[in-house]
Every structure is written in C-alpha cells, then in structure tokens.
Amino acid sequence: MKFSLGLILSWLLAIPMSFAATITASQDPWPPFITSDPNMPGISVEVVTAAMKTQGYDVQFKIMPWARALDEVKNGRVDLLPATWYTKERTAYLRYSSPYIENELSFIKLADNPFEYDGLASLKGLNVGIVRGYGYDGEFMADTGFNRPESGDLATNLKKLLSKRIDLTVKDKIVSLSIMKEQGIDSSQFAFTQKSMSRNPVHVTSGIANPNSQKYIDAYEKGIAEIKQNGTFDAILKKYGIK
C-alpha cells in the first residue's frame, strides 16, 4: 500500500513537467543569433528558450526565410519571432518585448573599395543591396538619392558585390562574419565601413492577431528577468563569444 501511494505521488509530481505548454517560434538563419546548428542554435534561440522555460513553456523553433517567418507570426500561425528590429510600421501587427541585445549595422564593400560612409548623402548614386523584409531605418529607406535592390539574404548580396552588380550592402558585422564563415565565403574579399549606419535594439515579438500574444510577451519579460538574475543570460552570451 505504501509503495502504491508513493508511486501515485510520483506520477502526480511529474504531471506539471510533462504538460508544459509548447509554443512555436521561427526565423531565418542569422548567426550567431539564429543558426541551423542544433548544438549552437544561436543567442536569440537560446535566450528565448531559456526565458520561456522558466514560465512553463517549451519553445519549438523552425528555420524559414525571414519574409515568411514575419508573415506567419503577423497572422498568428507562429507564436514568436526571437529577434526583431523595431519599426513603427510593425507595431500595427506585432507586440514587442523590451530589447535584450543590440546590433550595429555597417556597410560592406569590396576590400579594395576606398568608400567610407559619412551619412546618407555619401550613398548618392550607389546601389546598396538590402534583404527583403528587414526593418531598416526609416530615413535610409525613404532616401531617394540611391538605389536599394532587394535580395533574399546576405549571401546573395555578397555574391552581387563580387560580381559588381551592387556597390555596397549593409549588415551587422558580427552576423556578417558568422554568415561568411558558415557559407564558406572568404571574408578577406570584403571590408566594413568604419562608421556604422545605426544601432538597432533586438526584441522578441508576437503577432497581435495571436490571441495569446500579450500573454507570451508578458511571460518572456518575466523569464528574461529571471535568467538575467540567475546568470543564464550571461552564460549564453559567453558561449557565443559576445561577452
């Protein structure tokens, strides 16, 4: 009888663990923040997973192109985007968390190109490759003095640079070097401008169309505070060489 009671109690204690709610998240490869390596899935993936776990959620993450991931979250079919830049336009359909890290956007050029960025006027007449659907600075996107041909990802823009179909592209330096390494692209062929275009805080977002979006963002805020306090957040940054 004692054995049976103990067994029943063990089962009851295990129930909360086995019935953790599963939520979905998605984004494109954006190393070191988002990667396709299951052993090193990325800073953003690990931060969101750890934060949500403290609040009783398991995060099921799936890699997909950025434009598609944004659309899936916007329409409530996927619960979270782990790494989103703020734009005023997106606030119409996304709920934002507080920022947890920051990107510094610099221009990438061919190594022998003497160009140095000195404000938007210095881009006049140039073709600056961008990634479709990314949340670039509003003034940068509105300026009519230069062209912004779109591609699906940075790797395509780097190939365009090498073939001189564009003059520059723009990306976070840490992300760019990680993508070059992952894609087997020789980074010595390129250089970064000394002056960056902008610094962009990174947020977790959920689509307003999702009836649970506010609940998920609130849970994340509680979770990120907890993992910052217990040292998990710093440990994740150190794992990826950021801190």
Automatic annotation (TrEMBL):
<protein>
    <submittedName>
        <fullName>Transporter substrate-binding domain-containing protein</fullName>
    </submittedName>
</protein>
<feature type="domain" description="Solute-binding protein family 3/N-terminal">
    <location>
        <begin position="20"/>
        <end position="243"/>
    </location>
</feature>
<keyword id="KW-0732">Signal</keyword>
<dbReference type="InterPro" id="IPR001638">
    <property type="entry name" value="Solute-binding_3/MltF_N"/>
</dbReference>
<feature type="signal peptide">
    <location>
        <begin position="1"/>
        <end position="20"/>
    </location>
</feature>
<comment type="similarity">
    <text>Belongs to the bacterial solute-binding protein 3 family.</text>
</comment>
<dbReference type="Pfam" id="PF00497">
    <property type="entry name" value="SBP_bac_3"/>
</dbReference>
